[in-house]
Each structure stands twice: as C-alpha cells, then as structure tokens.
Amino acid sequence: MTSSYPSSAIPTRQAGAFYALYFAVLGVVLPFLGPYLLFRGMGAVWVGLITGAFSLAKLAYAPFLGAWVDRGRWFPGLLTAHVTLSMVVAVALSRVHAPWAMCLAFVFIGLGYGSVLPLVEAVVLQRLPERGYGALRVWGSLGFVAAATVAAWILGSDRMDRFPLCLAVAMMALAATCMPLENAARPHCQPRQGGLPGVVWGLLALLTLHQVSHGPYYAFFSIHLRQHGMSGGVVGGLWSLGVVAELVAFISGRKLEARLGLRRLLGLALLVTPLRWLLLALPPSPATLVLAQVGHAASFALAHLAGVQLVQRAVPEGAVRHAQALYSGLGFGLGTVAGSALAGPAYAAWDGTGAFLAAAVLSGVIFLVWLPLARRFRPSSSRSAAATGATST
Q1: According to DSSP H, which parts of 179-298 are helical?
Q2: Average pLDDT in the 54-62 region?
C-alpha cells in the first residue's frame, strides 16, 4: 500500500488531548459504574453483565468499522459522530429502569465510545513521536486520574444520581478532541487487502484471556472495598494510585523497550499479573492494596505497551486499523465482557477472595502459554521498527 501520510509525527497536543479525554471517560466509568448500578438496584450478576455490555460493541462493531476504513471508506465527522451517540445515551440513563434496558443502553454507549480508539491508535502508531508511544499514552493516565478525582468529589458516597451527568460531560469533552483528528485518522493511502498472520491471532487470543482475568477487578474492586467499610474517597484514591503506577510505566516505556525488547516486556507483565490478583484475594489491608495497585503498572500498562505495538508491527500496512480494532475488540471487548460476566456469579458465590483467586489461577496459565508463543513471535519483515519510531522486539 502506498501511503501519503506526512512523514512527521502526529501533533502531540492533538493526540495527547484525545488520550486524556478518552481515558477520562474510563475515570468516570471504572470506579463508579458498579456503585451506580447498585444504587439503581441492580444485583451482582447484572452488575457484571452491564459492565461487560459497555465493552461488547468493541467486539461486535469496531473490527468491522476498522476493516471498512482500511478499505479507504470514511465519512466526514466519523469520530465525532460516534462519540456524540454515546453522549446522548448517557444523558438518558436516568430514565432507564429495567436491567435489560440498562444493559442495552451501555451497549450503545460502548459502541460509540469504543470505536474511535482503534482508528486513532493506528495512525498514532504509524506516526509516533521520537519519545515513543508511552510519551503520548501517558496523557490517558493523567486524564483518568483527574476524572476519577473529580468524579469522586462530585458523586461522594450519596450522590450517585449524578453519574449520568458526569459521564455525559466527559463524552462531550471527548467529542471536542475528536474534531481536530478527523483528517489525520482518515486513511491517506491507496488501500489494499492484508490478512493477519497466524501468530498474531495467537497473541490476540492470549491477550484476550489476559483481559478476562481483569474481570473481578474492573467489575467488583470498588464494591469489594465498599463492603469492607472503605469510603468513596479511599476507593477513588486506590484507583488513582493504580493509574499513577500506570503513568510511571508509560513514561519509562521507551527505556524499558530498549532494555528488554517488547517480547520480554510482555512476559514480565504476564508474570506479575497473577501475583497482583493473589494480593487482592487476601483480606484488604493498606499494604496489600497499595502493592496490588502498584502492580497495575505491569498488568495493564506494560502489557498494553508491548501488546499494541507487537500487533501493529506484525501485520501488513493495509490491515492496521482492522488489527487494532481486533486488538481492542477482543482484548478490551470480548475479554472485558467475558471477564465481567464470569466475575458476577464468581463474586456472588465466593465474594472477593474466591473471585480474585480464580483470576490469579487463570493469569498463571496465561504466562505459561506465553513462553512457547514468545519464541515463535517475530515482527513482519514488511513493518520495520524504524517505520514506527520504536525499538526492536
């Protein structure tokens, strides 16, 4: 495929603003969706299903949109229109009452919200700045921390009725950051068909299972802490601590890539993850909770930093949006849906201890599977590290 993208890196301010506001939405959703659903009278099983529904569209829709765009199709305002859909549905949440209707509402919120990241991420990875992917992605961590802190202050422990407003405002701000990126994200090249190598499908399957292991954390971490008597401020603070650790990992990402390579970096992340879930399976204490949240640097940040770049480098250039949509849709779509859905019955039957212990067992198996897969994984010869401004794997 002949590309006519500018040779310069994507504008840092535009990409940084997008990442900051995209993950600011998650700063509202992840810590407070579970408590909001309990406030609305949903049981544990429905909390898991609705949390998963938020990510379902990443699997059901985003990969088709990515393939559609890879074939050179685009309409003006595509990014902004998708986020606007999410904003409109978020405004209407207070009028939704039945559990199945709430689940459907979050499918549509996730459809608009989750579809824009792979389209932006593909071009960001094609036009990386000299400091690498982590230098841009760190703005997402900052946006998450800021949004979680503000949302904790607005919602407190007894104002969960304000959650839809917080979510709608975050979506509105995200839509504003999409507007300057519409032209940059649109394909500036002649499309051609490109399939995904088998080893990439293996990596995608493994990263999907890795995300499944996060199900109890994303769906029930806040609830687990509340049930042990912790306040909304403490809960928000622990979420923010995890993202601060994530932020440090992204800042250090370029050096870690150069020292370890992406394959070893992913292996390190997969090794630390079961240890993190084992800590959360213990009775909550300041020491175990702080250490577990610091582990978010590995279980999320390093796993994502390595995974997203390994996928990008190993596919033909004519399939990068489809590949990134599959990475997002399988890992953060199917993986989150399955993890959250399974976490509901697990938490109802075993409480937090059993649910996090099950996650630790799954993560240990994932690490063992990665060891032989890592030896087979090679970046595609058609996509050099120099082309993405990154180091060798």
Answers
A1: 182-185, 198-212, 215-227, 232-251, 253-260, 262-281, 286-294, 296
A2: 74
Residue 379, pLDDT > 50, answer no
CB neighbourhood size of 182 (10 A): 17
User: What is d(CA 360, CA 128) in angstroms, rounded to the nearest whole number?
Assistant: 34
pLDDT (0 to 100) of residue 193: 55
Tokens 């198996």 belong to 365
From residue 286, how far is each of 221, 226, 237, 289 by CA, in Å?
14, 14, 12, 5
- pLDDT one-digit tens code per residue, 201-249: 999 999 999 999 999 998 888 888 888 878 877 887 888 888 789 889 9
Q: Tell me 161's DSSP state.
A: G
Q: Which helix (H) or strand (E) holds 33?
A: helix 12-39
21-50: average pLDDT: 88
DSSP string of 76-109?
Answer: TTHHHHHHHHHHHHHHTGGG--SHHHHHHHHHHH
Q: Of 217, 194, 197, 209, which is closest to residue 330 (Cα–Cα)?
A: 209
Residues 279-301 as b or e (16 or more Cβ within 10 Å = b): bbbeebeeeebeebbbbbbbbbb
Query: Which residue, chain included where needed, has tokens 């074939």?
Result: 71
Query: Considering only CA atoms, which of 44, 18, 12 is closest in space to residue 227?
Result: 44
| Per-residue pLDDT at 391 | 36
Percent of the chain with pLDDT over 70: 89
User: Which tokens in the block code for residue 42?
Assistant: 């949903």
Structure tokens at 386: 């120099």
Task: Kindly list the structural domains of the chain, giving each domain's residue range(s) and its CATH number in brackets, ordered by start.
Answer: 12-388 (1.20.1250.20)
Q: 268 pLDDT exceeds 80?
A: yes
* CA gap 252, 212 in Å, rounded: 26
Q: Which 3 state secondary structure label does DSSP give 5?
A: coil
Percent of the chain with pLDDT over 90: 32
Q: How far apart are CA 249 and CA 301, in angstroms?
A: 6
